[in-house]
Amino acid sequence: MLADQFKRKIDYLRVSVTDRCDLRCTYCMAEDVTFLPRQEVLSIEEIIKLIDVFNELGVKKFRLTGGEPLVRKNIISVIEHLFELKKQNKILEHTLTTNGTNLEKYSPILKKNGINRINVSLDSLNPEKYKEITKWGKLEKVINGIQSAINEGIKVKINTVLTQDFNDEEIFEIIDWCKENSCDISLIEIMPIGSIGEKRFDQYLSMKSFEEKLVKKLDLNPSKYRTNGPSRYFSNSNSDQKIGIISAISHNFCDTCNRVRLTCTGKLYMCLGQNDFVDLKFALRNQSKADIIKLIEYAMSIKPKAHNFEINKSNYEGYVNRYMNETGG
Ligand code: SAM
Ligand code: SF4
């Protein structure tokens, strides 16, 4: 079993399977982003090999992310492999976070491969605003994708990044839409990851005051419900819907961190909000499994206590020097 220097048990790996994406969400990456050269990106076989090593070390929960996981060629081979591990009771859960643009095609395949719940990112229900935040996304495609996942019996949780003067008013309508469609929802506070050419401060809306407004308006109570992620959930006595809040900055949750993140180039980030990483690619391509294990164990020994995110008026650059699509959400 993996544990870090602060005795936090690490049993959850988020795997970014590609840095590429068919959208350009304004808070995630710059519009003119340069994607990684293909030779730097791990092959599907290499991703599977690392998943197996982490699994042998006691990691039992896996989330595929990106970039957009469903634009990665042959991604289904990774999902099939995870399902095999699940059938052998070697893992507890495999799931993914997606922007939903390809869900209509993939939902039946995901269901067939044992995926029972997914997170879908959706920041507006207004087609124009959706296009504005994603640069060119088509809302209808995502809604149809979500519907197809629901029809397959996959539980969908919507992820909505709360953005100042963009969707802070609309959020109540989005919560209602989720309720009508039997979806839970997590509201995510913007994190300063990568320089996007805009002040993060102008996008940022602190959950602290927003949470108060939300709880009062929807008559919410804290819920004991937990998933593997950092959401704190609330619910209303008249409904089954869970409303999660992910507030990395205004309500730090690092002391319960149970995860590390693997990028599509084989870098292991111990914290989303720090720059330190351990590179597994060289060992993966040139050394033995024992060498990879040594590096993972070293990574545990230097996993930081907490992130250092900070958002203030004068801060243009993101605190960490990579984009969210590289490390994965
Ligand atoms: N492409 C997939 C998607 O959008 O769901 C998966 C990758 S995306 C990087 C994962 C999650 O990170 C999404 O829910 C997205 O909204 C969120 N995200 C991206 N950039 C962020 C930022 N700077 N702060 C907070 N959340 C962010
Ligand atoms: Fe792509 Fe997801 Fe980033 Fe949006 S948040 S640009 S969908 S990786």
Description:
With 329 residues, the chain is of the alpha/beta class. The protein has one domain: TIM Barrel. 32% of the residues lie in helices and 18% in strands. The protein contains eleven helices and 14 strands. It has helices at residues 44-56, 75-87, 103-112, 127-134, 139-151, 171-180, 200-203, 207-218, 281-286, 289-301, 324-327; strands at residues 2-3, 9-10, 12-16, 61-65, 93-98, 117-121, 155-162, 184-189, 221-222, 232-235, 242-246, 259-262, 267-269, 277-279. It has a twelve-stranded mixed β-sheet. Strands 1-2 form a two-stranded antiparallel ribbon. Strand 3, helix 1 (44-56) and strand 4 form a beta-alpha-beta unit. The longest helix has 13 residues, at 44-56. It is globular and about 55 Å long. It starts with a strand and ends with a helix. 44% of the residues are buried. The model has no long low-confidence stretch (mean pLDDT 91). The chain binds S-adenosylmethionine (SAM) and iron/sulfur cluster.
CATH superfamily, please?
A: Aldolase class I
Instruction: Name the helicity range.
Output: 25-40%
The fraction of residues in strands falls at 15-25%
Q: Write down the overall geometry.
A: globular
The CATH topology is given as TIM Barrel
From the helix content, strand content and strand pairing, which structural class follows? Answer: alpha/beta
Given the structure, what is the number of helices?
A: 11
CATH architecture designation: Alpha-Beta Barrel
> Hetero groups bound?
S-adenosylmethionine, iron/sulfur cluster
Count of DSSP strands: 14
Through-space gap between termini: 24 Å
SSE arrangement, N to C: EEEHEHEHEHHEHEHHEEEEEEHHH
Given as residue ranges, the uncertain stretches (5+ residues, pLDDT < 50) are none
Overall mean pLDDT stands at 91
* Count of all domains: 1
